[in-house]
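Worked problem 6 (solution included).
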Amino acid sequence: MSLRWFILIIVDVLLVLLSLYSAAVIRLGYPEVTSKLSETSTFYTAFIFVLAILFASHLMDTYDFDRNTRKREIIINTLLGAATSFFLLSITYYVDPNIMLGRGILVISIAIFSLLQYVWHVIFYLVGRHNPRFSRRVLVLGTGSLASQVGEFCSAHNRNYTLAGYALCNCNGASNNEKQGESVVVPHDLIVGNADDLMAATLVAQADIIVVALSERRGVFPLRDVLRCKLNGIEVMDAPSFYELIHGKLMLEQITPSWIIFSSGFRRPIYFSICKRYIDVVLSLTGLFLTLPFFPIIALAIRLDSPGPVFFRQMRVGNKEKMFNLFKFRTMRQDAEDKSGAIWATKNDPRVTKLGSLFRKSRIDEIPQLYNVLKGDMSFVGPRPERPEFVEKLKQVIPYYSKRHFIKPGLTGWAQVRYPYGSTIEDAIEKLRYDLFYIKNISPFLDTLIFFETIKVVLFGRGGQ
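Solution. The predicted structure is:
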């Protein structure tokens, strides 16, 4: 929890209370509101209101400093947060009518808060986003290529962390057959100390976190000094864990089977699997019920746009590498792969029809996959299913690629909301980083976050080709 995030949250809480109070005064009048302030039920109602507003704002990424880079993004997230909070509070009031905000107070208070939140966040992002006092300081243990990478992560990719310096690791106690240290590729002026006295280096750098970034630990890892820092309350983590923390994906080049085995994560309790399947069935039935009336219109538009079938079936690789037929609305010419065979779609792909391009951008072509979710071939959230021709190729060149098939593929996924559409092996590697992160950290909260992120992806038209 960074200081920047804490300040943003605290002010938002005050703005929520101010909005609720202002709406109540507008609708009920100052005397009546003042008389109710001492009642216990008022505090409970206000608490539920604040909780719902903050939860909705968090789901909509209004506190994500790396994604809210423009005023348009901020206002869209604010409006989505307002809509989500209204939905959550409506459900809450249905369950417990005793805490309901009547006489239009709910709508007015959310409207006032949305305006105040937008103004406050714009001011905060313009003034405070680059202030180093809001960042956590990172001391990198190591001076080699891996340490240099970690330093770049701090300086270029995340505003919540600031590079405090590097600690040189060259332990004199190693044997002649063991590595005495690693080459120095980081700027010498950023080396603030030595691993032989890591605690002193930490104090000099005023570091909050130590990231162990040694290319080779055997014979050079300063166990005693790192343990001393850990016991003195300084957070210690390795480079892959730090990379995962700031990027939301895994550092494939540095993780090993033992890292996967001993890391926290990669757990799927049986109750979670049952709940996930129940939600998949409910959402797929709801989605099909709402969209089926539009199927004839979509079918007519496809037939008028180009000759060929309305639906498109394609073999995909599912859970435990079992094959299944994936259904979509057809967006390409009927003879799209007669000559080329199986190839990835590209930007401005000539095989895509005019209507198909619109369907892909709006994700309308994915609607029939709700049937796959209902059947159990897919889940609502998970790694996107790939074609078997590509899977066999990617398994040969990308380590751990087959691990993405340990759960059901999804209609949407972490890679889809974090990375644009890919058509190369390099893109497949990047998406695998996100897919493995999802498998490692799978949870109801992450699924909910992906669901709401998908709404934003559709609204902004990101990623489709």
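Discussion: DSSP finds 18 helices and nine strands in the chain.
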